[in-house]
Amino acid sequence: MIIVTGSVTAKPGSFDALLEASLAHVHRSRTENGCISHAVRIDSEEPMKLVFFEEWRDVAALQAHFTTPGIADLLAAFREHSCASEKITAYEATELPPLG
Question: What is the pTM of this model?
Answer without folding.
Answer: 0.92
